[in-house]
Amino acid sequence: MEKIEKLKSFLINSPGDSFLKHALALEYIKQGDDDKARKLFLEILESDPSYIGSYYHLARLLERTGESENAKKWYEKGMMAAKQAGDKHAYNELQAAYEDFLD
After folding, report:
1. What does the pLDDT look like over 44-76, one tens digit per residue?
2. Which H, E and C letters describe 43-93, residue by residue?
3. If pLDDT is split at 50, 70 and 90, which confidence band does 103 have?
4. Could you state, in order of their start, the residue ranges of all structural domains in the chain?
5. Contact criterion met (CB below 8 Å) for 36 and 55
6. pTM
7. In CATH, what class is 2-102?
8. CA nearest 7: which of 55, 40, 48?
9. Which of 24, 33, 39, 78 could form a cystine bridge with 94, CB 3.0-4.6 A?
């Protein structure tokens, strides 16, 4: 809980910081609070669609919670965003996760 409180306090001073929001979402996942994590990932991707890492983690969360169609959509959006950004590493990770998901 200490990390969550620390990240929340940082966000008070930098409410639009995608990195801090992403880190907070990952902490929520560790705590088993998928709803809060999901809301943060969606918030990040609405305001900062070039924040590629959140696509992967949102899609994985949706996959894990049984929202297969939604997960598929976010993997595909993430691959498109990574391709547009020229981020081959992120694209390859998203593609591998997507292919595993489809199997």
Report:
1. 999 999 999 999 999 999 999 999 999 999 999
2. HHHHHCCCCCHHHHHHHHHHHHCCCHHHHHHHHHHHHHHHHHHCCHHHHHH
3. confident
4. 2-102
5. no
6. 0.93
7. mainly alpha
8. 40
9. 78
